[in-house]
Write a structure and sequence with these properties.
With 177 residues, the chain is mainly α. The chain contains eight helices and no strands.
């Protein structure tokens, strides 16, 4: 009786995929959200890898990147010495970017995440921001009501005139989509 019913297998990596694919969208938000997102993505990603007993593959480039961060921390200690612990803490906290790189590279290596949804997400966000800047140019205000600041158009970034940098960085992904 139930032979012809399709059974949909639950994707155990769904949340991890979604977290990776929304990265271009998160980058349109204020920096506090970006930091929170990156911390959650890295922590959840490694928790997911260890929980599912996925073996992490380390390549030569990974050792080089970690060596760079170790040299970065050592040079911070040598330059500032015992005078500035805040800068030392920030340089140690930058290791999260090496961990992020290692996580994303392993997710690609294990074929857990794919590049096409990320490229489409980047395309959508670049087109959205470009249209928002165009709207701000023609009407004087963008979708959120931000006017241009000092002759520069910030789009959804408000007072920060970084929309051009966002479009520049993510447009390469949008072109590849």
């Amino acid at each position: 009786m139930f032979k012809n019913l399709k059974v949909y297998k639950s994707d155990e990596h769904r949340l991890l995929k979604i977290l990776f694919y929304i990265y271009p969208l998160i980058m349109l938000m204020p920096s506090g959200y970006i930091t929170l997102y990156l911390a959650f993505f890295v922590i959840y990603g490694y928790f997911h890898i260890f929980n599912n007993k996925i073996k992490i593959k380390i390549f030569l480039i990974d050792y080089i990147i970690f060596l760079f961060f170790i040299i970065y921390i050592i040079s911070t200690v040598i330059y500032y010495g015992d005078t500035n612990y805040i800068i030392l803490g920030k340089s140690i906290a930058d290791i999260r970017f090496a961990l992020l790189f290692l996580l994303i590279r392993n997710l690609f290596y294990k074929k857990i995440i794919k590049i096409n949804p990320f490229l489409i997400s980047s395309l959508f966000c670049v087109v959205f921001l470009s249209l928002d800047i165009f709207l701000q140019f023609t009407n004087g205000k963008d979708i959120l009501g931000y006017p241009k600041i000092d002759g520069r158009y910030g789009g959804v970034f408000g007072k920060e005139a970084i929309a051009g940098g966002y479009i520049q960085k993510f447009s390469i992904f949008a072109v590849l989509a």
